[in-house]
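Fold this sequence, please.
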Amino acid sequence: MKPVRWPGMLAALPDAITAGFFFLVWWAPQALGPHAVRTAVLIMLVEFVLVHAAGFIGRIAIERKLGLVDKLRLMLPLLLGYGLFVGAWALMWREWWPFLAFAWLVVGKLQTGTDPSLSQQEQEQQVKGFWGLSVVIYLLVAFVTVIVPMPRFGITDTDYGLPGAGLWMESPHIVVAFGAIYFSLLSLARYAVSKPVDDQSPMDHC
């Protein structure tokens, strides 16, 4: 039996929790309150912004030559810039909690390349590779959920108070399915790219 890769488990946990939220909303949207569907839709809009920023944020986070203050100083302009988009959505939706969603998703993005057993070069490769992978997963799942009919489960034709128009606003079960599949795959990918606890070859034990 292969040993559990605890760094990979910890890195995958935020996305796994987010995936669990989407699955619960998909199956029983009222279980998390009347605004759960709105929350799910907005999270995917915020993720669209952050998936582009993940590489820059992650690269700064793993830089060992920088102290915490310097890292925050470099990240702040990025976070403020992307935060403007979140602020625009918060204003349009007349809610403040999108900033909490933004902060939670940023936490998930910072999990890549944080394994202390990795060298600086390995961390950089992991951040860069996972950034590209997350973009591919986002685009692929977005395409599939639009082309392939998604089951509604607990999401009905009820008016969930979604502003604007478009496929996601008119068929929220599609974006909720998108989030459930996307964050599940993201969580599995984070665990898969983590370094094994014991990466020695069998010959090393002879």
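Residues 197-206 have pLDDT under 50 and may be disordered. Residues 110 and 155 are 32 Å apart (CA to CA).
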